[in-house]
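Late entry, evening session. Most of the bench is empty. Finally got around to the prediction I had been postponing all week. Sequence below, unchanged from the version circulated by S.P.
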Amino acid sequence: MIEANNLIKDYGRFRAVDDVSFRIAPGEIVGLLGPNGSGKTTIMRMLTGFFAPTSGTCSLGGIDVTVDPREARRRIGYLPERVALYPDMTVQGFLAFIAKVRGVEGRVQSAVGDAMEVCGLTSMAGRHIGKLSKGYRQRVGIAQAIIHQPQVLILDEPTVGLDPRQIVEIRALIRTLSGLATVLLSTHILPEVSATCRRVIILDRGKVIAEDSVEGLTEKTAGRGETQIRVTGPEATVLSALREVPGIDDVEVTERAAGGTLTLTVRSRSGGAVRPQLARLLVERGCAVHELSPRLMSLEDLFVEILAKSGSTSDEHSHAGKESRP
């Protein structure tokens, strides 16, 4: 449904997007994740036809955005980071205006009603947009993006500036939209991805540096041979048993709880191959094993590690802001 092939975008000598390619299937919710300045907004503006790529192609439902921009835009619902709303209009009036602009002929009233219901705006229909909270204004922004029932929704930082309750509500709303359209959203907020997306494309300095499901990326980078163990027994007995297993590089006690229960991290160059032997030895020594599992990285740890592997540092992005513009 969304396809980018070898996209490049240059602003003078600065390359904001560097040979980016990806495909998104119908019905997927995919996140573009990256630090500020990584190229997320520029990619979205090329997909929506606001920017022409320096080279490469992008298409929506098989329609090349550069060759036939009008037809491509009919398929798109777009929520920019700063959505243009008219504060003196009511919610219902604004959405009716957008429906007419979008060419929703003969069913404006029903289209407005459907969009307000999906976005939880029915009770706000007669309120002026300028008197709404930031969270409800964001809902109006999403409603205008879906008013014409697009095949593709592109959302740029959809929860930026919202309070925690509003963020939870908008994330839940985005998840419901997956049954209506293919969704691509950009964010630099890590919990956003795990809360809303099935798959993530990680960008750094204009390049794709990783692409997979959140779970898949975590499992791939958890192959450092770390095992988490929670066991009850004398600490000396537990440590002695663990260190008898060939291939164990390090044993770290991370928590001591009441009743002699220990939580440990075991690192082994043999990875998961040592786990059956670890369990057997602990049981043979009279210890009660409550947990023995691979230690998976958090999304935050994963993000930092992937950026480190790409040669990036947090300092490079600490003052980056949004992508450079002409």
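Two things to note before I forget:
Confidence is low (pLDDT under 50) at residues 314-326.
Residues 1 and 257 are 51 Å apart (CA to CA).
Will write this up properly tomorrow.
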